[in-house]
Write a structure and sequence with these properties.
disordered C terminus, mainly alpha
Length: 118
């Protein structure tokens, strides 16, 4: 593929598993972030405060911002981001949590539209 045909866009996939050691501290940090957001409408603020108070995964999602991850990287501009968080059962010894293993995104030679020329 020539440089002219190469997309300038790159999808960066990151998966993190974090252990919440202090739910109270996490919730307080999220509430402080919400309180500091002066542009947030009052009804949205009430909803956000309720969400982060009831669910530590929501509190974490409120504090993690993909823009923060790439804002200092030279030569790029964040075009789009989405993220979510959920509480999970985690067993670090389980093969299901092997981050270096197959993630199911291998090249599918039977997939339509794939260039299979050698």
């Amino acid at each position: 593929m020539s440089t002219e045909e190469t997309s300038r866009f790159v999808r960066l996939r990151v998966e993190l598993v974090v252990e919440v050691e202090d739910e109270g501290a996490l919730t307080k940090a999220a509430l402080r972030r919400i309180a500091g957001d002066t542009d947030m409408p009052a009804d949205e603020r009430v909803h956000a405060e309720s969400a982060v108070t009831e669910d530590t995964a929501e509190a974490l999602a409120y504090l993690v911002d993909p823009f923060d991850l790439v804002s200092e990287v030279p030569g790029i501009e964040l075009a789009q981001a989405s993220w979510s968080s959920e509480q999970i059962d985690y067993d670090p010894d389980s093969p299901d949590w092997d981050l270096d293993g197959d993630d199911g995104d291998e090249y599918d030679e039977d997939a339509p539209g794939e260039d299979r020329a050698g």
